[in-house]
Amino acid sequence: DAKTTQPTSMDCAEGRAANLPCNHSTISGNEYVYWYRQIHSQGPQYIIHGLKNNETNEMASLIITEDRKSSTLILPHATLRDTAVYYCIVRRGGGADGLTFGKGTHLIIQP
Amino acid sequence: NAGVTQTPKFRVLKTGQSMTLLCAQDMNHEYMYWYRQDPGMGLRLIHYSVGEGTTAKGEVPDGYNVSRLKKQNFLLGLESAAPSQTSVYFCASTVGGGTEAFFGQGTRLTVV
To answer: Which residues of chain B are modeled with pLDDT < 70?
Structure first.
């Protein structure tokens, strides 16, 4: 699976959009971008994933650049409950061998 | 619908003792996983299973064994616990490869 690079930490004001970047310059054509988050040592929670098109669900939007070498997770209206560690993971579709977690980005939502 | 349930939630072991962690899922998922998470780190895969009766090694399998005798349960065993196995253990399950993973709430294990 391709390696990802994320900032160690970020701040965002409550009510504003939180934009979390991720670089994955070695991504292969059959690899997807996944985002998970972990709130205060709870089990990780799935957020969203995509291959090359932008994706949106009730939690977030995922913007993938045209060359697929980077992506941005957008939380449109951040709340204090969105404070968490966010993991960007690249893995091939259909693979059974689990997820490779880096250290992620610690997002802190400020009141 | 409970999702993924881990038992126990906390445990303290003495070096050399053995124990089994239980993961149960009620979503009829085929794939199940055991991860460990050390302070300040991301999760690392210990073992996984792609179906009843099957298991495979992950990134950090040494010192652990697993069994998947029933589709809904995935057991993680420590035969002789060591302080280096002090960690938080997470179980996860998925419908199939590459799909959304559902995680349990974790088991905090301390080996003294």
So the answer is: 1
